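Worked problem 6 (solution included).
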Amino acid sequence: MGSHGFLAMIWTLKVLFFISAAIFVSAFSTNKTTRDILDEWRERTKQEHPECLKSTGVKQEYVDQYWESVQMADDENFKCFLWCVFNGFKVINNDGTGNEELIVQTIDRMTNEIVEFCMEKADKMPDKCKRTYELINCCTRYKHAYV
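Solution. The predicted structure is:
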């Protein structure tokens, strides 16, 4: 390969690198504040999955604390509320395990690194509600993603 071919190859690699970097940054960065993200999910939950509040018997106070400041009540009904909501959005499977691909695609600030780490911890929990609670708790706190 002559020097012209080598320079063309280097130029092509640089272009590919910058395109890849731009895609990565746009895919994993958000200008939304934590408040914006929580308000958006609260509203989506009210609109798309209002049944979760009634079917689980969770106290409204626990739900409000979660959407206001990511406080997670250590309460069985609240844990099942989280399962109901995030299962409804298809980011949590029926057995309480996470759908890693959809979590990363759907939820702002989530990365494969966060989800993989947290799924490993959560998958050890004995039932779907506790697995969901552990996964959500870990993901929101991992490297201060939200809190």
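Discussion: The two ends are 54 Å apart (CA to CA).
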